[in-house]
Amino acid sequence: METLVATAKEFAMPAYFKIDKEQKLVMSTAAGVFTMADVLEHQEKLLKDSDFDPSFSHLVDLTHITKFDLETEGIHRLAQQSLRTRHPRIAFPLRSKKY
Questions:
Q1: Higher pLDDT residue, 47 or 75?
Q2: ∠ CA 55-61-65, rounded to 5°
Q3: Superfamily of domain 8-91 in the CATH hierarchy
Q4: Is the pTM of this model over 0.90?
Q5: Where in the chain are the domains?
Q6: What is the per-residue pLDDT across 16-68, written as a single tens digit (0 to 9) for each?
Q7: Burial call 77-86: b when 16+ CB within 10 Å, e when fewer
Q8: 14, 26, 52, 88: least buried by Cβ within 10 Å?
Q9: What is the pLDDT of residue 73?
């Protein structure tokens, strides 16, 4: 699997992604403080990418998050949106630390 590397422009946002069409896999990663606005911006960019296919599996690496700034309602909303995109598999690796 390729390592995700962000350019300076991409790193201005705490999340970025790579789409591996051959493996049918979307790999997203986030760092620092992660807010609902960041999540929505990331989703918007992903959905606009011509390589994005909602049938691909999605690996979301959250191990570099220092703080989640998401309320329960926002998390519920994201879960509902994820169900509608019909990703066959979504994985969210986290550190064991509580947020």
A1: 47
A2: 140
A3: STAS domain (3.30.750.24)
A4: no
A5: 8-91
A6: 899 999 999 999 998 888 888 888 888 889 889 999 998 888 888 888 888 87
A7: eeeeeeeeee
A8: 88
A9: 76
Whose tokens are 């929505």? That residue is 40
| Structure token digits, residue 87 | 């990703």
Structure tokens at 9: 């422009």
> Cα separation of 62 and 93, whole Å?
6
Residue linked to tokens 């962000």: 6
Tokens of 53: 């296919």
Three-state secondary structure call for residue 70 = coil
Distant-in-sequence, close-in-space partners of 45: CB < 8 Å, separation ≥ 6:
17
Three-state SS string over 1-30 comes to CCCCCCCHHHHCCCEEEEEECCCCEEEEEE
Contact 21, 50 (CB under 8 A): no
